[in-house]
Design a protein that fits this description.
This protein is an alpha/beta fold and about 350 residues long. The chain has 2 domains: about 220 residues, DHBP synthase (Alpha-Beta Complex), CATH 3.90.870.10; about 80 residues, Rossmann fold. It is built from 9 helices and 15 strands. An 11-stranded mixed beta sheet has the order 1-8-2-3-7-4-6-5-9-10-11, sandwiched between helices. It has a 4-stranded parallel beta sheet with strand order 12-15-13-14. Helix 1 crosses helix 5. The radius of gyration is 20 Å and the shape is globular. It starts with 5 loop residues before the first strand and ends with a helix. It binds threonylcarbamoyladenylate and magnesium ion (MG).
Length: about 350
């Protein structure tokens, strides 16, 4: 299933902030839309991570995403849309979902809502569930492509299944070269961890399926109550994608390291380094000033860079759970699990 992968560095993309329509012609844009229209696979950056996009209404194209990533087909995909108006054609928004969308879109928030029976989105996208995951990203290119195609874009992170998500076009190439048709390069992602996934279905508690780029505190302030966490009890909704071992580099990862052991590389956080940091085989500090936003942005690139040095293990310094720390620690626990 080898494909020849083209690269595209679009110039600045300007869109209408409410509809997502492209404002001025952009070199290469029409070809990207054509590739998607033909059922092709295009890596498109978002503010969180790079996504691997295909026409969400084209079942064969969506199947191509699963094949390129080796992704288990029970794990549903997020549909990216240019505006809330379009999102409402595909999903049923209750009062809370609407408030969340109006406040945090465009942005790093995915809403899981009941799928409208008349939505043309392919069944494979939601893996047979009656709900659908929708997001308006703060990423002009993704919104403009979806607007021009007049279809939602199904897009998981553009990495092979189970591996660290890509936050640059170079990462995408390392993962998916010769498996996809086009990689759009707009530089590094500004948020750096995937979107927060929130389940919003009438009659069930609002549930955080995945902590992510929007802090849980901000969501809880808006809904006026605390969020149920997925898997908190047997009744709580679950996200099929939250396999324990995930986001994994190829070498072992040791969390909450207060000292560095021989042969280890160090993923540090903040100004205070663990004992023996000067002995580390390699070191990357996610944020020397201990800032959660800066650390989220640097997380996946940091894991990838240390992994590529073929170290025996990566020791990770403790990171507080505040703000995006919750999402960072979630990804690090999965990186450390099960191998
Ligand atoms: O930031 C992001 O969310 C990135 C960018 C590209 O948008 N996308 C991303 O997609 O991280 P992916 O496929 O790696 O993660 C989507 C998550 C998975 O955990 C999946 O199980 C969950 O969303 N999901 C999708 N549809 C769902 C549904 N109907 N019910 C429950 N969980 C769902
Ligand atoms: Mg992913």
């Amino acid at each position: 299933m080898t494909r020849s992968t083209r690269f595209w560095s679009p110039p600045r993309i300007e869109i209408d902030p409410s509809t997502g329509a492209l404002q001025a012609p952009v070199d290469g844009f029409a070809q990207a839309v054509e590739t998607l229209g033909d059922g092709g696979l295009v890596a498109v950056p978002t503010e969180t991570v790079y996504g691997l996009a295909a026409d969400a209404c084209n079942g064969a194209a969506v199947a191509g995403i699963f094949a390129a990533k080796n992704r288990p087909s029970f794990n549903p995909l997020i549909s990216h849309v240019p505006s809330l108006e379009v999102a409402q054609k595909h999903g049923c928004f209750n009062e809370q979902a609407l408030a969340l969308a109006k406040t945090f879109w465009p942005g790093p928030l995915t809403l899981v809502v009941p799928k409208r029976p008349d939505s043309p989105i392919a069944d494979l996208v939601s893996a047979g569930l009656e709900t659908i995951a929708l997001r308006v990203p703060d990423a002009p290119l993704m919104r403009a492509l979806s607007h021009a195609l007049d279809r939602p874009l199904a897009a998981p992170s553009a990495n092979r299944s189970g591996r660290v998500s890509p936050t640059s076009a170079t990462h995408v190439r390392e993962e998916l070269d010769a498996r996809i048709d086009l990689i759009a390069d707009l530089g590094a992602c500004t948020v750096g961890v995937e979107s927060s996934v929130v389940f919003c279905v009438t009659g069930q508690p609002v549930t955080l399926l995945r902590p992510g780029g929007l802090s849980s505190k901000a969501i809880e302030r808006l809904i006026g109550s605390s969020l149920l966490r997925a898997g908190a009890d047997d009744q709580s909704p679950a996200s099929p994608g939250m396999l324990t071992s995930h986001y994994a580099p190829s070498c072992p990862v040791r969390l909450n390291a207060r000292s560095v052991q021989p042969g280890e590389a160090l993923l540090a956080f903040g100004p205070d380094l663990p004992d023996g940091a000067d002995q580390a085989v390699a070191m990357i500090n996610l944020s020397e000033i201990g800032d959660d936003l800066e650390a989220a942005q640097a997380l996946f690139a940091g894991l990838r860079a240390l992994d590529q040095k073929h170290v025996s293990r990566i020791a990770v310094a403790p990171i507080p759970d505040q703000g995006l720390g919750e999402a960072i620690n979630d990804r690090l626990r999965r990186a450390a699990a099960g191998r």
